[in-house]
Amino acid sequence: MTARPSEKTDKPDIGQDQGPALQISQDGPIRRLTLNRPNARNSLSLAMLDCLHEALADCSTDKASKVVILAANGPGFCAGHDLKEIAEKRSKPDRGRDFFTTTMQKCSAVMQAIISCPKPVIASVQGIATAAGCQLVASCDLAVASTDARFSTPGVHIGLFCSTPMVALSRNVSRKQAMEMLLTGEMLSAQQALDWGLVNRVCAPEGLVADATALAQTIADKPASTVKIGKEAFYKQLEMPLAEAYDYAAAVMVENMLNRDAEEGIGAFIDKRTPNWSS
Predict the structure, then answer these.
(1) Order of strands, sheet of 2-3, starting from the edge strand that comes earlier in the sequence
(2) d(CA 55, CA 59)
(3) Rounded distance, CA 270 to CA 265, Å?
(4) Strands 201-203 and 22-27, sheet pairing
(5) pTM of the model as a whole
(6) Residue 275, SS3?
(7) Which of 163, 160, 161, 197 is nearest to 177 (CA)?
(8) Residue 71 backbone phi and psi in degrees, to 5
(9) If you count Cβ atoms within 10 Å of the first and of the last residue's Cβ in the chain, which end, N or C, has fewer?
């Protein structure tokens, strides 16, 4: 795997962490984005959010990448927003309002960029994923967690309800489970996260990279055009009433059936041969 460092670096971390805030590497059809602020628990500073948004935009248009893995260096996945950066802005005349607004807008844009990315995004989670870090996991299409992973939305402990993480969380787990996490701020184990539907798989810490990569490769072996159609349709129909969702999905499926890869796949199934995908 050849590393391709991000062009942006997280300036506040110089002297603390080594290298760019976000590391980018390519392994065949798999693009790996690795949060690289381990000494700051990979918190989402404004610079980190910019790096993530730029990298996701690049993944969306890069033809060589079919699946994205979002991982992190260090003992923890992501502790959420950079509270030190936030606290520093309170000395501004507006008490930080403009900075807070920009931060929330950029964070929301990153989460939506994950959903709108035509490539599936898989979170590979070790250690803690809290607040906006938990939001990051919930926003990904799939998630693989090591047994040492822990998840929480702990804002309530410091007088800051996790309202934006709530958006992603409430679209992944049941209402009562989401409310329990949001109102108590208590940690969820990897097994609980699996049981509640926040993650797809749990594995031993030493197998995390291999398991996430294997899942990514399974998806990468599918035709990219079909995966793109399916991911977009999945999220669109979720927000529709039942009858509208069926009408929309039926229309999507008709167009999909006319797609070259669907024709090839059906033909290969009938002929009992391996399909030759166009993408």
Answers:
(1) 2-3, 22-27, 30-35, 67-72, 121-125, 142-146, 201-203
(2) 6
(3) 9
(4) unpaired
(5) 0.91
(6) coil
(7) 197
(8) -125, -175
(9) N
